[in-house]
From TrEMBL:
Keyword Membrane attached: yes
Protein name stated in the entry: Isoprenylcysteine carboxylmethyltransferase family protein
Species for this entry: Albidovulum sediminicola
Keywords per UniProt: Membrane, Transmembrane, Transmembrane helix
Family matches, as Pfam families: PEMT (PF04191)
Domain of life: Bacteria
Topology class, membrane: Multi-pass membrane protein
Protein localization: Endomembrane system
Length: 146
C-alpha cells in the first residue's frame, strides 16, 4: 500500500475540507448562523455515532475497503444507505456556518462528489457482490444520500 493510499480514508478527507473551511472563515468571514451551524454539526455527529453503533452492534466493519459481514438496513440505515457520510457532510456544512465561512459551503458538494467516487461506488460494488438480491432490494427502497 502506498503512503497516500494508507491515509485515503473519509475522515482524512473530512479533516482536510474542514481545514480549508476554517481558513476561508478566517480570511473572508461573512455573517452566518453559528448556532444553526453547531446544531447541524451536532446532528451530523449524532447521526455518525448512531450509524457506527449500529454497525458495531451488527458485528460488521465500518472501515472502508474492508469486507462487511452483515448488511445493516435498520435504524438510520433505513433512511439513508450512507448515514456516516451524510453525517460528515452535515458536520462540514455546520462548522462552515459556525466559522462564518459562507464562501466554503460549496465545499460540501465537492466533498460529497469525492466521497461518492472514491468510496461509495466501491463499497456498493462489494455489498452487491456479498449480498446480491438483498442489497438490490435495499437500494430499491433506500436512497444513497437522503
Amino acid at each position: 500500500m502506498t503512503p497516500l493510499k494508507a491515509i485515503d480514508y473519509p475522515p482524512v478527507w473530512l479533516a482536510a475540507f474542514l481545514g480549508v473551511s476554517w481558513v476561508v472563515g478566517r480570511l473572508v468571514p461573512m455573517a452566518s448562523m453559528p448556532v444553526t451551524g453547531l446544531g447541524l454539526a451536532g446532528l451530523g455527529a449524532a447521526l455518525m455515532l448512531t450509524a457506527l453503533a449500529q454497525m458495531v452492534w451488527a458485528r460488521t466493519t465500518f472501515v472502508p475497503r474492508k469486507s462487511p459481514t452483515k448488511l445493516v438496513t435498520w435504524g438510520v440505515f433505513a433512511q439513508t444507505r450512507n448515514p456516516i457520510y451524510v453525517g460528515d457532510a452535515l458536520i462540514l456544512a455546520g462548522l462552515s456556518l459556525y466559522w462564518h465561512a459562507i464562501l466554503a459551503l460549496p465545499l460540501v458538494a465537492i466533498f460529497v462528489m469525492i466521497i461518492n467516487r472514491r468510496f461509495i461506488k466501491g463499497e456498493e460494488t462489494v455489498l452487491r457482490q456479498a449480498f446480491g438480491a438483498e442489497f438490490a432490494a435495499y437500494c430499491a427502497r433506500t436512497r444513497r444520500w437522503l
